[in-house]
Specification:
The two termini are 42 Å apart. 48% of the residues are buried. The longest helix has 16 residues, at 183-198. Helix content is 36%, strand content 17%. The strands form three sheets. The chain has a five-stranded mixed sheet with strand order 2-3-1-4-10. The protein has a four-stranded parallel sheet with strand order 7-6-5-13. The chain has a four-stranded parallel sheet with strand order 8-9-11-12, covered by helices on one side. It contains 14 helices and 13 strands. It folds into two domains: 3-117, Alpha-Beta Plaits (2-Layer Sandwich); 124-378, Ribulose bisphosphate carboxylase, large subunit, C-terminal domain (TIM Barrel), CATH 3.20.20. With 380 residues, the protein is of the alpha/beta class.
Length: 380
């Protein structure tokens, strides 16, 4: 173990760097400077800055992944470089270096005392299960859509999903504050419809309105959502900024579960030699920023994620990361009821399945479709 790794005042990050060993070492040196002092090593004053502030290459190993030559570099940074703020931590992790080719953030490792600066998920997997009274089976979720329906029509659909027993009913991420279904009217109508439909069933059912909004309105919409009876919140951290989600999760006056949607984040993961890994982005960083469930497209749907990439996300949602709670992976993106046996085999029970259009397409009886959805997962 590197001597640095025995201390608690540094955090450790693994990067994939393309090129042969000589090129990878040069990239590692570049990363250590660029992500901290952002100036050439030869102009730094001797002592504290090069010794403590500049990132430190701890190890370099040739990558065994197929494809172009690459190395896995373990780099440590002083906790003080992050300043205890998520925005600056993200800047240190992948700020300027994101503008260069051949650098990929693979995973966060030992955080020393830094992880303790962040609260992470308020509920996590077990807390969300406790809210819903479902200790074992996979959770079920769906989305009210499409954009263009009125708030009344969306609420009617939400009520039917609730009557059918869906655990978490969220806004589609494209529903914002459009004139045909304003945020306030939609949130109020849908929350009421879900509450009324859930009452006869005796089940706890959560409605999650989309609070993705201009910076000054995110908290305002979240507070309104809670006031009218929403049981959770949906946000797109790629659009609002990841720290906006962290602020919602940390707010004790809200105290609602957070669902993270991946809109606007796809270009981080689409190139294997650049960006951020699926594991780190949709698993670790979503947890660090307080999400209780991380939505992503499962392989074989409308998007191009592979099975290995989906497995990475599920692992990133549950693998040990400081004291942060494990969260639910929430695969969706064009999933059908017919694929549930395959999905159950792949993810097991610690998952929140997101099925949208197929609950409407499968038959005109939406409540019956939802009941089928439940039956398919209740006997695992």
């Amino acid at each position: 173990m590197p001597a640095s790794k025995q201390t608690q005042d540094r955090f450790f990050v693994r990067y994939r760097l393309t090129g042969d060993e000589t090129e990878a070492r040069a990239k590692a040196a570049d990363l250590c400077l660029e992500q901290t002092v952002e100036c050439p090593a030869d102009i730094l004053p001797k002592g504290f800055i090069p010794d403590q502030v500049v990132g430190r290459l701890e190890s370099l190993q040739k990558s065994t992944d197929p494809g172009a030559p690459a190395s896995e570099a373990l780099i440590s940074f002083s906790n003080d470089t992050a300043g205890g703020e998520l925005t600056q931590l993200c800047n240190v992790l992948f700020g300027n270096i994101s503008l260069k080719k051949g650098f990929r953030l693979s995973r966060l490792e030992n955080g020393g005392t830094l992880w303790g600066r962040f609260k992470g998920p308020r509920f996590g997997r077990e807390g969300l299960r406790a809210l819903l009274g479902e200790p074992r089976r996979p959770l079920l979720s769906t989305a009210v859509k499409p954009m263009g329906l009125s708030a009344e029509e969306l609420a009617r659909l939400a009520g039917r999903f609730a009557a059918g027993g869906i655990d978490v009913i969220k806004d589609d991420h494209g529903l914002a504050n459009q004139p045909f279904a304003s945020f306030a009217e939609r949130a109020q109508r849908c929350a009421e419809a879900v509450r009324k439909a859930a009452a006869p069933t005796g089940r706890a059912i959560l409605y999650a309105p989309n609070v993705t909004a201009p910076a000054g309105e995110v908290h305002e919409r979240a507070r309104f959502a809670k006031k009218v009876g929403a049981g959770a919140l949906l946000i797109c951290p790629g659009l609002t900024g990841i720290d906006a989600m962290r602020a919602l999760a940390d707010d004790d006056s809200l105290g609602l579960p957070i669902l993270a949607h991946p809109a606007f984040l796809g270009s981080f993961v689409t190139c294997p030699d650049h960006g951020i890994s699926h594991y780190a982005l949709f698993g670790q960083l979503m947890r660090l920023a307080g999400a209780d469930a991380s939505i992503f497209p499962h392989s074989g749907g409308r998007f191009g994620f592979s099975l290995d990439e989906c497995r990475e996300i599920a692992d990133g949602c549950r693998d040990p990361l400081g004291d942060f709670r494990s969260i639910f992976p929430a695969p969706g993106g064009g999933m059908s009821l017919q694929r549930l046996p395959e999905l159950l085999e792949f993810y097991g029970s610690q998952v929140m399945f997101l099925v949208g259009g197929d609950l409407v397409r499968n038959s005109p009886d939406i409540e019956k479709n939802c009941a089928l959805f439940r039956r398919l997962v209740e006997n695992i």
